[in-house]
Amino acid sequence: MIALLAPVASAGVIVVMASWWHSRQPARELCTPGQAPPAEHAGWRQRLARRSMTVGAWWQRRRVERQRIGPSDVAAWVDDLTRSVRRGITLRQTIIDTRPDHDGLAASTEPLRHRVQRGADVAAASSEWGSELTADHRVERHLRSTASVLSISSSVGGGAAAPLDRLAAALRQTAADESERGAQSAQALISARVLTCVPVAMLALLLALDDDVRSVVRSPPGAAVVACGLALNVLGGWWMRRIITSGGR
């Protein structure tokens, strides 16, 4: 499957890069005063350049949206909040001024900063933000915990540095546990890839070396068996990867 899709993906990348390079080049055709500009010749190039830039912008947005927010990223943001609060800055101003370095985390925390900046109470803004995070299943659970701590710290009163510090410590411990589980599941992932790729490689080798295998594959029953085998192989690889990754969460 990967071998079949690789040429198509490579061709798409080459077309996009070529159009981008050509769009950055200066114009090479000059027109005399009595000559009409080559509108059709330049039009398709401009359209191709615009489409390539549109695809690039869409891919950038998708990359930011799909970027996973880990507990270590949230812990770094909470540490910044804690340091700012310990310097004597109010929690409201701390939330407004402290922007995470992680692009996905910055986008996810933007509604909280927007509400607080417009004058909403920190407890109410954090509670509403936590409700939105609960409705959005793509957002990690670590942000929901942060919203709860911010809401409780603001509503109860007292210093907010200690709860935020304990939250950051818990998030760092969660990140360490996830890293350990990822290291333990690496061997299982390698085994799943081997079990998925070896049958396809053996089939390609037999097709290249054995005439009998090629004759069988060219027949309708043989082609049907090979197609079913490849489909089951892809399904099995996806299933094994899903089991391993779900167990590591």
UniProtKB/TrEMBL annotation:
Topology with respect to the bilayer: Multi-pass membrane protein
The keyword Ubl conjugation belongs to this UniProt entry's keyword annotation: no
Highest taxon of source: Bacteria
Coiled-coil features, chain-numbered ranges: none
Subcellular location: Cell membrane
Signal sequence interval, chain numbering: none
Pfam families per record: T2SSF (PF00482)
Domain Type II secretion system protein GspF: 79-207
Main location, first listed in the record: membrane
Keywords for the protein's UniProt record, in alphabetical order: Cell membrane, Membrane, Transmembrane, Transmembrane helix
Membrane-spanning segments: 188-209, 221-240
GO cellular component: plasma membrane
Record PANTHER family: INTEGRAL MEMBRANE PROTEIN-RELATED, PILUS ASSEMBLE PROTEIN
Protein name stated in the entry: Type II secretion system protein GspF domain-containing protein
